[in-house]
Design goal:
Elements lengths: L10 E12 L2 E10 L2 E8 L7 H19 L7 H6 L8 H17 L8 H6 L12 H10 L33 H15 L5 E4 L3 E4 L9 E4 L9 E4 L5 E7 L4 E4 L2 E4 L14 E8 L3 H14 L1 H9 L4 E8 L5 E5 L5 E2 L1
Antiparallel strand pairs: 1-2, 2-3, 3-4, 4-5, 5-8, 6-7, 7-14, 8-11, 9-10, 11-12, 12-13
Helix pairs in contact: 1-6, 6-7, 7-8
């Protein structure tokens, strides 16, 4: 399974290899590391005129630009500087990400809130560690943070600058979208070159077309119980983003009680329900699958099922604990899983 626990930060280097040559084309794989996230970009360069080395360098540049624009861990990024109250000159990536975050906040009824950064920080799941927050601290935070207090569009000045003070100095956190969005940006670049067969894995995946064997792309799915990989999701050879968010690996225990890393931005507290993981497939974008997987983890099993079944562009695979603590599975009719 893919994990929504680490986000793309800075690039340490990229490697390129030919992974297949045959009648269908010439497949190339670009691999590297972005702050402990191993990424892989596989694609068929059949019909593409741009040299492979240039494509590798462009992918490297895209990842570096996203780190500069949107990383909450890079203290020199536009996002970090904005969160620190500095006037910035937002680029297209920053502006687009803000719009995606706002739209997902509206769509999810507040369950996905990229302006709730201080709330995540207070529980130690944001960009800094923290002590256990009190009820009073949470109540105070909820009153002054969140996308509800922000405009739908960034108030960019005529000179192209953005002053956080004009928005009340919010703290933004794009952990629910960043990896999926990064896969989308790289996929857009590959499409612009004429690439039709691709699998872009930057922690979350976007795929389209067929693999070097001429089959739909396949992605391994593991289980919260810690068992080895047993199931594989397969695409239909069509565009799809696939993302997993889960509660079973990242949590903390206090006074004998386990607290999930998934915080409900509406209530201000870690979620308490039976849903262990949500794997979401989106025909629209990997950013959407990323955000909706988080949305599912916030609202729990029954509402997650409603979200997935209520949108023909989505498919999903959910794992949850039954009343006996045993792990159970649910999948939508169109989720293609094989052993």
């Amino acid at each position: 399974m893919l994990y929504n626990l680490r986000k793309v930060l800075s690039i340490l280097g990229a490697m390129l290899a030919i992974i297949s040559c045959g009648e269908r084309g010439r497949y190339v794989q670009i691999t590297g590391v972005a702050q402990s996230v191993n990424y892989s970009v596989k694609f068929n360069i059949n019909g593409v005129d741009v040299p492979v080395d240039q494509i590798r360098d462009s992918v490297d540049a895209i990842l570096s630009n996203i780190d500069y624009s949107l990383s909450g861990y890079n203290k020199e990024s536009l996002l970090s500087r904005f969160n620190a109250g500095e006037v910035i000159r937002p680029n297209d990536l920053f502006i687009e990400m803000y719009g995606i975050g706002y739209n997902m906040w509206e769509r999810s009824g507040g369950a996905v809130d990229c302006a709730a950064g201080p709330l995540f920080d207070s529980w130690g799941f944001g960009f800094r560690s923290s002590s256990f927050p009190t009820d009073e601290e949470i109540s105070a935070l909820l009153g002054k943070i969140g996308q509800k207090n922000l405009p739908k569009e960034l108030p960019i000045a005529p000179d192209g600058t953005l002053d956080p003070a004009s928005m009340g100095n919010p703290k933004l956190n794009y952990n629910a979208i960043a990896q999926g969005y990064t896969s989308d940006v790289i996929a857009r670049y590959l499409y612009s070159l004429g690439v039709k067969d691709m699998l872009v894995d930057i922690g979350e995946i976007w795929c389209d077309g067929l693999n070097p064997s001429g089959e739909p792309w396949a992605v391994g799915v593991d289980r919260p119980s810690g068992e080895e990989l047993k199931d594989v999701w397969t695409s239909e050879g069509k565009p799809a983003g696939i993302t997993t968010s889960g509660n079973y690996r990242k949590f903390f225990v206090r006074d004998g009680k386990k607290y999930s890393h998934t915080i409900n931005p509406v209530t201000g507290y870690p979620v308490e329900h039976s849903l262990l993981s949500a794997t979401v497939v989106s025909k629209v974008s990997s950013a959407e699958s990323d955000a909706i997987a988080t949305w599912c983890m916030v609202v729990g099993l029954e509402k997650a099922q409603e979200i997935i079944l209520g949108d023909s562009r989505l498919e999903g695979y959910l794992t949850y604990a039954d009343e006996n603590g045993d792990t159970k599975e649910w999948m939508s009719p169109g989720f293609r899983l094989r052993n």
